[in-house]
Amino acid sequence: MGLKTWKNVVKFPHLASLVLLALVAVAIHLTRNKGNDAVQLENQVLLKEDSSKNYSAPGCNLFSGRWVYDNVSYPLYKERQCSFMEYDFACEISGRQDLKYQNWRWQPHLCDLPSNPPRAASYCSNKVNRTHGRHWIDADILVFDSFTWWMDPIMTILWGSFESPDAIYKKVDMKLRRYEIALSTWSDWLEIHINRTKTKLFFMSLSPYPLGMEHGHSCHNKREPILDERYWASAANRSMMRIVESTIEKLEERGLKVEYLNITQLSGYREDAHPSIFRTFWGTLTNEEIKNNVERYADCMHWCLPGVPDVWNQILYASIMKS
């Protein structure tokens, strides 16, 4: 699925528009108990301790590893039995017949991911995202990510207030500069509002997707992960990642710790795990029309479930428990 050109309005230096358009945030309010189960009650998550502490050992890098085929313990759950499943990501229900993409397990080189993370640790990102930062201030954990929105070639930026007659609109094509401004605004908000003794902060790196689909580079019919550990996905923009890393380093220098979850390369290996044409189409397209124009209709940005996002959750869970 190619990138669309959206007519965005971004407002600086206020955080509100940044949140609306480009920054996904997950807020978690933790409640610990002595039981073994993990359950979600509205915005509260009960986390259980994992018996394996392998992932907390010194030298354990959860992001350096390889994908291992495992049809014994994977998938972690059945697509048709998941009550939270959205049809856009339910590739099996949407007609995908090669299901090996569900059986690949991420194996770090020097340690293991948690063997049985709590299945109910699902997060209320949409609800929090739509009602803004007032829900974030007292959270135990905040997880941020921001990437795809900034890939549009031109954005319209509003300098000032929507209500002000003196507001100035400017079209900006400096992708890296506007991303840098956005993250600077984000970091300023964190410094002012976050309780440094309570809230644990995470930033998830970009989720890559294949570029050049109009030239035949598509995720369609990809059935195996890329096993060459030197591979780097074409859409994994290193310059944008460096901006994130630099922003996080500056925050740490000012006494605010943000843990960077670098899931980019491990996700980039999985060109086989995108929905492609096995997803919901909300128009009147026929199967014949879709198959005759796969490059246009294949979704190579999102992910099938069960799949790669489950590994992100395992890594997040391990990082939370380590802290």
UniProtKB/TrEMBL annotation:
Keyword set includes Transmembrane: yes
Transmembrane regions: none
Subcellular localization(s) per the UniProt record: Membrane
GO annotations of cellular component type: Golgi apparatus; membrane
Entry keyword annotation includes Transmembrane: yes
Domain Trichome birefringence-like C-terminal: residue ranges: 124-318
InterPro entries reported for this sequence: TBL, TBL_C, TBL_N
One example GO MF annotation: O-acetyltransferase activity
Membrane topology label: Single-pass membrane protein
Alphabetically ordered keywords of this record: Membrane, Signal-anchor, Transmembrane, Transmembrane helix
Start and end residues of each Trichome birefringence-like N-terminal domain: 59-112
Family, as annotated: Belongs to the PC-esterase family. TBL subfamily.
Protein name: Protein trichome birefringence-like 34
Species the sequence originates in: Sesamum angustifolium
Phylogenetic lineage: Eukaryota, Viridiplantae, Streptophyta, Embryophyta, Tracheophyta
